[in-house]
Structure formats: C-alpha cells, structure tokens
Amino acid sequence: GSMATPRQFHTSILLSSGNVLVTGGVGDADFLASCELYDPSTTKWKNTTSMTEERSSHTTTMLKSGKILATAGYGYTGYLDSSEIYDPSTGKWTPSAKLSTTRASHTATMLNSGKVLITGGEKQGSVRACTNPDLIRFRNCGAHS
C-alpha cells in the first residue's frame, strides 16, 4: 500500500509493536502535522492522530517508556523550539518541553541515563549550525524536567 499523504523532510520510527510511525514533513505545498502508521505484517498504512503542530526537519526518539518524543523542526512559524510526546497505547500527542533554542535538521539521542541529548542543526536567524545542546530528562510518565 501507499501512504495517504506524500511527504518529505518527515521522520519514521519503529514502535515497540513492530509498526512504523511516520510524522510530519512537507506535503505538496504545506507543512504537515499528520501522522501515519505502517504495519509491516499487513503492508497497510493507516492514519493516526496528528501532532499538535506542523513540523518538518524534526526528530523522533523513542523514550524508555516506549513513548515517542518529537522535537523542534521547521513549520509555518519558522524554526521551532517545541516538543511533543506520542503515546502509542492511546494514539495521542501531548505538548512537552520547550528547548533552549529553535532548531531544525538536528539530532536527538536517547542516553542510558534516560535523558535525550538534542544537538546541532540550524537555528532561527542563522544558517550556521546550532552549538548549544539541550539535555532533557523524561520520567516514566513522559513528563520532563
């Protein structure tokens, strides 16, 4: 099968269930908040809840809880400093931590400590690489500190 929405500058991440979550990106001419799930056992796509805001050139990272963290990126308002968490058990997105700076085309790495290290990328007002990292700790419920 095919995705419902053609997209680029999106992310895809393997969920604990074995399904693949595809998030955001850019469609024909629009930034996307929409998300789709791919089931490799049936080779079928289905829509799931959209993110709380449109984002492209963002990251998705699996937290230790199995929830998915989407960070920053680029949308209608420019570079983003927001993040949100997807709960695969409910299919819902919840807004989460603000980053210390706007950024897109960055990386986000789950550390053994349970913190997510967010580094690099481009930031508002500069095409230079963003050098200030964000280190965010997520507890079992997905809340941040």
From TrEMBL:
Keywords: Kelch repeat
Signal sequence, start to end: none
UniProt xrefs under Pfam families: Kelch_1
Entry keyword annotation includes Glycosyltransferase: no
Family annotation (PANTHER family): LD33804P
Name of this chain's protein: Uncharacterized protein
